[in-house]
Amino acid sequence: MSLKTDQTAINVLPAVMRETGISTVVVPFVALMDDLVTRATAMGVDCIRFRSSMNSGREGVPRAARLVFVSADVVSSAQFSGYVDGLLCVGLLQRIFIDECHTAITDFGYRAKLSELIGLHRFGRPMVLLTATLPVVLEDWFRGEMLAKSVIIVRDRTIKLNCRYEVRE
Protein backbone atom coordinates (compact mmCIF):
# COMPACT_ATOMS: atom_id res chain seq x y z
CA MET A 1 0.00 0.00 0.00
CA SER A 2 1.46 3.31 -1.06
CA LEU A 3 1.75 6.32 1.22
CA LYS A 4 -0.47 8.00 -1.33
CA THR A 5 -3.23 5.83 0.13
CA ASP A 6 -5.29 7.34 2.91
CA GLN A 7 -3.57 6.60 6.26
CA THR A 8 -6.96 5.83 7.80
CA ALA A 9 -7.13 2.74 5.60
CA ILE A 10 -3.87 1.48 7.07
CA ASN A 11 -5.29 1.64 10.60
CA VAL A 12 -8.71 0.30 9.67
CA LEU A 13 -7.76 -2.54 7.34
CA PRO A 14 -6.87 -5.12 10.02
CA ALA A 15 -10.06 -4.29 11.92
CA VAL A 16 -12.30 -5.20 8.99
CA MET A 17 -10.52 -8.45 8.18
CA ARG A 18 -11.74 -11.65 9.76
CA GLU A 19 -10.01 -13.03 12.82
CA THR A 20 -7.30 -10.41 13.04
CA GLY A 21 -7.81 -9.57 16.70
CA ILE A 22 -7.66 -6.08 18.13
CA SER A 23 -5.55 -3.17 16.94
CA THR A 24 -4.74 -0.19 19.12
CA VAL A 25 -4.14 3.17 17.44
CA VAL A 26 -2.22 5.74 19.47
CA VAL A 27 -3.02 9.27 18.33
CA PRO A 28 -1.18 12.42 19.53
CA PHE A 29 -3.82 15.02 18.65
CA VAL A 30 -7.45 15.28 19.78
CA ALA A 31 -8.69 16.64 16.45
CA LEU A 32 -6.96 13.82 14.58
CA MET A 33 -8.47 11.24 16.93
CA ASP A 34 -11.93 12.75 16.45
CA ASP A 35 -11.47 12.52 12.69
CA LEU A 36 -10.17 8.93 12.76
CA VAL A 37 -12.98 7.73 15.04
CA THR A 38 -15.59 9.46 12.87
CA ARG A 39 -14.17 7.97 9.68
CA ALA A 40 -13.80 4.46 11.10
CA THR A 41 -17.34 4.55 12.47
CA ALA A 42 -18.65 5.77 9.09
CA MET A 43 -16.93 2.77 7.48
CA GLY A 44 -18.76 0.44 9.86
CA VAL A 45 -15.66 -0.50 11.85
CA ASP A 46 -16.22 -1.69 15.43
CA CYS A 47 -14.18 0.92 17.32
CA ILE A 48 -13.99 2.76 20.63
CA ARG A 49 -12.09 5.71 21.99
CA PHE A 50 -10.30 4.67 25.19
CA ARG A 51 -10.57 7.17 28.04
CA SER A 52 -8.95 6.85 31.46
CA SER A 53 -12.35 7.41 33.06
CA MET A 54 -13.56 4.16 31.48
CA ASN A 55 -11.70 2.06 34.02
CA SER A 56 -12.42 4.25 37.02
CA GLY A 57 -16.07 3.25 37.09
CA ARG A 58 -17.47 6.46 35.66
CA GLU A 59 -18.13 4.98 32.24
CA GLY A 60 -17.89 1.26 32.97
CA VAL A 61 -15.28 -1.19 31.77
CA PRO A 62 -14.31 -0.58 28.13
CA ARG A 63 -15.37 -3.28 25.74
CA ALA A 64 -13.00 -5.11 23.43
CA ALA A 65 -13.68 -3.39 20.08
CA ARG A 66 -11.71 -4.42 16.99
CA LEU A 67 -10.07 -0.98 16.85
CA VAL A 68 -9.18 0.95 20.01
CA PHE A 69 -8.16 4.59 19.60
CA VAL A 70 -6.22 6.10 22.50
CA SER A 71 -4.61 9.46 23.15
CA ALA A 72 -0.82 9.49 23.37
CA ASP A 73 -1.25 11.23 26.73
CA VAL A 74 -3.07 8.19 28.16
CA VAL A 75 -0.95 5.24 26.97
CA SER A 76 1.36 5.30 30.00
CA SER A 77 -1.55 5.36 32.48
CA ALA A 78 -2.27 2.44 34.79
CA GLN A 79 -5.81 2.25 33.38
CA PHE A 80 -4.67 1.79 29.79
CA SER A 81 -1.90 -0.64 30.77
CA GLY A 82 -4.45 -2.71 32.67
CA TYR A 83 -6.83 -2.70 29.72
CA VAL A 84 -4.11 -3.78 27.28
CA ASP A 85 -2.78 -6.41 29.70
CA GLY A 86 -6.31 -7.84 29.81
CA LEU A 87 -6.44 -8.01 26.01
CA LEU A 88 -3.05 -9.74 25.97
CA CYS A 89 -4.11 -12.30 28.58
CA VAL A 90 -6.97 -13.46 26.39
CA GLY A 91 -4.89 -13.29 23.19
CA LEU A 92 -6.83 -10.46 21.54
CA LEU A 93 -4.26 -7.67 21.10
CA GLN A 94 -2.52 -8.15 17.76
CA ARG A 95 -0.78 -4.88 16.91
CA ILE A 96 -0.20 -1.29 17.98
CA PHE A 97 -0.24 1.61 15.54
CA ILE A 98 1.31 4.94 16.47
CA ASP A 99 -0.03 7.62 14.17
CA GLU A 100 2.11 10.72 13.63
CA CYS A 101 4.92 8.81 15.39
CA HIS A 102 7.48 11.54 14.65
CA THR A 103 5.87 13.57 17.46
CA ALA A 104 7.54 11.22 19.95
CA ILE A 105 10.85 12.93 19.17
CA THR A 106 9.78 16.30 17.80
CA ASP A 107 7.12 17.40 20.30
CA PHE A 108 8.19 15.83 23.60
CA GLY A 109 9.73 19.13 24.75
CA TYR A 110 6.30 20.55 25.46
CA ARG A 111 4.40 17.25 25.77
CA ALA A 112 6.46 15.00 28.02
CA LYS A 113 3.99 12.10 27.72
CA LEU A 114 5.04 11.61 24.10
CA SER A 115 8.45 10.39 25.23
CA GLU A 116 6.66 7.57 27.08
CA LEU A 117 5.44 5.99 23.83
CA ILE A 118 8.57 3.86 23.93
CA GLY A 119 6.92 1.96 26.82
CA LEU A 120 4.50 0.37 24.35
CA HIS A 121 7.27 -2.13 23.52
CA ARG A 122 6.53 -3.88 26.81
CA PHE A 123 3.36 -5.39 25.35
CA GLY A 124 5.39 -7.46 22.88
CA ARG A 125 3.12 -6.83 19.91
CA PRO A 126 4.13 -5.62 16.45
CA MET A 127 4.23 -1.85 16.26
CA VAL A 128 3.40 0.05 13.09
CA LEU A 129 4.83 3.56 13.22
CA LEU A 130 3.08 5.94 10.83
CA THR A 131 4.31 9.35 9.71
CA ALA A 132 4.38 11.27 6.48
CA THR A 133 6.67 14.01 7.75
CA LEU A 134 9.77 12.47 9.35
CA PRO A 135 12.79 13.97 7.57
CA VAL A 136 15.41 11.48 6.42
CA VAL A 137 18.04 13.27 8.55
CA LEU A 138 16.07 12.38 11.71
CA GLU A 139 15.63 8.67 10.93
CA ASP A 140 18.62 7.45 12.95
CA TRP A 141 17.64 9.56 15.95
CA PHE A 142 14.06 8.32 15.66
CA ARG A 143 15.17 4.67 15.45
CA GLY A 144 17.32 5.07 18.55
CA GLU A 145 14.70 6.90 20.62
CA MET A 146 11.92 4.46 19.70
CA LEU A 147 14.09 1.33 20.01
CA ALA A 148 13.28 0.65 16.39
CA LYS A 149 16.68 -0.37 15.00
CA SER A 150 15.31 -3.19 12.83
CA VAL A 151 12.31 -1.38 11.35
CA ILE A 152 11.57 -1.27 7.67
CA ILE A 153 10.94 2.25 6.43
CA VAL A 154 8.72 2.70 3.42
CA ARG A 155 9.03 6.08 1.72
CA ASP A 156 7.01 7.35 -1.17
CA ARG A 157 5.96 10.65 -2.62
CA THR A 158 3.06 12.30 -0.88
CA ILE A 159 0.51 13.46 -3.39
CA LYS A 160 -2.64 15.38 -2.61
CA LEU A 161 -4.88 15.11 -5.62
CA ASN A 162 -7.13 17.96 -4.54
CA CYS A 163 -4.34 20.56 -4.18
CA ARG A 164 -3.00 22.75 -6.91
CA TYR A 165 -0.17 25.27 -6.82
CA GLU A 166 0.43 28.09 -9.22
CA VAL A 167 3.55 30.24 -9.44
CA ARG A 168 3.21 33.71 -10.88
CA GLU A 169 5.90 36.23 -11.59
UniProtKB/TrEMBL annotation:
Record-linked Gene3D superfamilies: P-loop containing nucleotide triphosphate hydrolases
Recorded superkingdom: Eukaryota
Record GO cellular component, one term: cytoplasm
InterPro entries cross-referenced by the UniProt entry: P-loop_NTPase (IPR027417)
Molecular function in Gene Ontology: 3'-5' DNA helicase activity; four-way junction helicase activity
Gene Ontology biological process terms in this record: double-strand break repair via homologous recombination
UniProt family annotation: Belongs to the helicase family. RecQ subfamily.
UniProt-recorded name of the protein: Helicase ATP-binding domain-containing protein
Lineage: Eukaryota, Fungi, Dikarya, Ascomycota, Pezizomycotina
Gene name, Swiss-Prot/TrEMBL: 28956253
